[in-house]
Amino acid sequence: MIKAGIIGGTGYTGVELLRILALHPEVKITAVTSRSDAGMRVDALYPNLRGYLSDLIFCLPSVESLSNCDVVFFATPNGTAMLMAKELLDLGIKVIDLSADFRLKDVVEWEHWYNLTHATPYLIEQAVYGLPEIHREKLKNANLIACAGCYPTAVQLGFLPLLEKDGVDLNLIADVKSGVSGAGRKAEIATLMSETGESFKAYSASGHRHLPEITQGLTAIANQTVNLTFVPHLTPMIRGIHATLYANLTSAMGAEELQMLYEARYANEEFVDVLPFGSHPDTRNVRGSNRCQIALHLPQGGKTLVILSVIDNLVKGAAGQAVQSMNLCFGFPENIGLVTVALYP
Q1: CATH 3.40.50.720 for domain 2-126
Q2: CB-CB contact of 159 with 216 (8 Å)
Q3: pLDDT at residue 191 is higher than 90
Q4: Coil, strand or helix: which one is 339?
Q5: Parallel, antiparallel or unpaired: strands 27-33 and 71-74
Q6: Can you tell me whether residue 305 is helix, strand or coil?
Q7: What is the mean pLDDT of the chain?
Q8: Catalytic site residue from 59, 69, 150, 292
Q9: Is 150 a catalytic residue?
């Protein structure tokens, strides 16, 4: 059994990590940090964890409080993991970062999009991108894992089989909707229910900071430059991401061939479910699970492929994917601790 620590245990991704790891048969959570709630029992703040983590107390974040861990998860805002990662790595502790600190290989681009100066740019090169369906083998030997973002996960898994095969125009469109938990657990007027309820809007249409991460991934898959138009939207729901993706086909591929392409690519991927051609996946189909559901459409029998990709942004888009990556780097079965049926309704 390995010992795990969580830095930032009071945010939505932090408590999702607690929920998943509390039942993981190979993990014991030994440290959970919180500056605002240090000294409080974890199950006092989150009563859903009563009986599972009854002896766990929030502590202040420090290398000393995490020094007995085998792995430390950062469920923190951007700019935090880069300040502590080196000291933990030097102690032989594996680091799994759910923020964006180590996702982009171009540090100048990262600093532009995140409006921060990177504290440890020399660590970026050794970071393995935490999207197991693409980087499984690299994750098995990783010490520093940069988990894929929620939008990037839904978009990359949606486009992946198509970009691995020639026959598509590399000017792509991603129209993506997210629940309000994607904004994190902080007090902001824009994410109050009275502001988001009964409403629907696009945001950051001129440029979202997940754009370079998605483009970096898609370009690596296609092995040539991909141009992406990415527009995110905020929906009045708590969890879930629905990506509607558009690609113009340049070769004669019909519905049957496209369906076979996707089914073959994901045949051995437990956490990607390709639905029958023409299906319409709901975000509720994957709520609470580590699953991505994908469906394909060819409207009016034309050459524009429409790909529908749905995930739970807090699980496959964050905590679940982090645990999936952890399983790989410690040699556990990839699905351990993650086998669950989505919540319905």
Answers
A1: yes
A2: no
A3: no
A4: coil
A5: unpaired
A6: strand
A7: 95
A8: 150
A9: yes
Residues 60-90: pLDDT tens digits?
999 999 999 999 999 999 999 999 999 999 9
Q: Which of 280, 276, 253 is nearest to 263 (CA)?
A: 276
Q: Residue 187 pLDDT > 70, yes or no?
A: no
Measured CA to CA, the distance from residue 335 to residue 99 in angstroms comes to 22
How many Å apart are CA 268 and CA 266, to the nearest integer? 5
Distance CA 81, CA 75 (A): 9
Please report, for the chain, the start and end positions of each structural domain, with discontinuous segments joined by +: 2-126, 151-313
Burial class for 220, CB neighbours closer than 10 Å (0-12, 13-18, 19+): middle
Share of the chain above pLDDT 90, in %: 89
The tens digit of pLDDT for each residue in 251-304 reads 889 999 999 999 999 999 999 999 999 999 999 999 999 999 999 999 998 999
Q: Is the pLDDT of residue 182 over 90?
A: no
Distance CA 156, CA 221 (A): 9
Burial label for 47, CB within 10 Å (0-12, 13-18, 19+), is: exposed
CATH topology of domain 151-313: Dihydrodipicolinate Reductase; domain 2 (3.30.360)
- CATH topology of 2-126 equal to that of 151-313? no
Q: Which residues of 96-125 are buried (b: 16+ CB within 10 A; e: fewer)?
A: bbbbbbbbbeebeebeebbeeebebeebbe
Round to whole Å and give the CA distance between 111 and 104. 10
Q: Which residue has the tokens 């997210």?
A: 178
Q: Kindly give the residue spans of alpha helices, DSSP state H, lying in the chain.
A: 12-21, 42-45, 63-66, 81-90, 107-114, 132-139, 150-163, 193-196, 211-222, 255-265, 320-329
**pTM reported for the whole predicted model:** 0.96
- The mean per-residue pLDDT over the stretch 232-251 comes to 95
Residue-wise pLDDT for 20-34, tens only, equals 999 999 999 999 999
**3-state secondary structure (DSSP) of residue 190:** helix
Q: Which tokens sit at 280? A: 């319409």
Sheet holding 304-311, edge to edge: 201-202, 227-234, 171-178, 241-248, 304-311, 292-297, 272-274
